[in-house]
Amino acid sequence: MEMTATEFKNGETIPVKYACDGDNVSPEIEITDSDNKGYYILVMDDPDAPGALFTHWIIYNIPATVKKIKGNIDKNEVTEDGFYQGVNDFNKIGYDGPCPPGNSTHRYYFILYKTDNFIDKKRVTSSEIFPMVEPLKNKIEFYSTYSRTKK
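The structure corresponding to this sequence follows.
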């Protein structure tokens, strides 16, 4: 199983388009996986946030037959593609991009989990999703960084 963002790679800077300083839209994610059984769960976290891990995106119930999560996905609890989106730590449904305070550079981890189970709950939060994904062994991740632009 592999995962990449189409416009930035592991360790690179996230383009401003995907951050609070830009359009704040979700990136396109490509998945390579020969096993089409089960479901994906994608979580985007900032481990450098003041105080605690900060979750920017939870999208789940993505059938393993899906090879691309389109960019600029709608911010509904169930997307037009039928994927579920959780409540991020901004207390909003869907994606909210990088927005680190001040001049700091933060890392943003995109973690893709694979499960056999459909999650029969809408609007899951980070405190609900983490106990579900922690025992999953089938996962991959990459990280990119972001610093605020000067205004």
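The domain at 2-147 is CATH 3.90.280.10 (Phosphatidylethanolamine-binding Protein).
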